[in-house]
Amino acid sequence: MTDFKFKFESLLRYRKNRRDLCLQLLSQILAEDRELMKKQESLVRSRLAQLEELRALGKQGVFEIEGATARHNYIGQLTGEIRRVEHRRDIVARQIELCRPAVTQAEQDVTALETLEEKQAAAFRYQQQRREVRELDESCRANLSANASR
């Protein structure tokens, strides 16, 4: 009895590898987006805390100009960093938009070949069973013929 050999096995391996690479890339991009989101939230919290401290300084009787100026400059730096992170997140969002259809297509390509492999394997098994039944029938007929001629 011979074993089934899918003639597109190398193409299936290639497509599975391509799908896995697409999934890995999407995973990395999503992880980067999560990290950028955390960084953005942290920067926004820091900026709000600095603004709150600046307001608190304004409510006190004595106003320290150097401290307020330093805080104001730092708030500007935080605002600029927040904008850079938002810009990077926009780029990452576009990468995700491009990557998701590629992952979907790669998965469909793999599924199509796996379905073909399953159908061909089932047809192969069916043919093998038919061949075995035919050989068994022929063997039984030969035995019956040999027994009848005695």
Which characteristics define this entry?
150 residues, mainly alpha, 2 helices, 90% helix, 0% strand, rod-shaped
Globular, elongated, flat, extended or rod-shaped: what is the shape? Answer: rod-shaped
Low-confidence parts, pLDDT < 50 over ≥5 residues? none
The total count of strands amounts to 0
Order of helices and strands: HH
Based on the structure, what is the oligomeric state of the protein chains? single chain
The percent range for strand residues is under 5%
Rounded Rg: 35 Å
Number of helices, where a helix is a run of at least 4 consecutive DSSP H or I residues: 2
Describe the biggest sheet? none
Query: What is the average of the pLDDT values?
Result: 92
Measured between the Cα atoms of the first and last residue, the distance is 33 Å
Count of discrete domains? 1
Topology overview:
Elements: H1 9-59, H2 65-148
Helix pairs in contact: 1-2
Describe this structure in words.
- Helices cover 90% and strands 0% of the residues.
- It is mainly alpha-helical and 150 residues long.
- It has one domain.
- The radius of gyration is 35 Å and the shape is rod-shaped.
Summed up, what is this model?
With 150 residues, the chain is mainly alpha-helical. The protein is built from two helices and no strands. The chain has one domain.
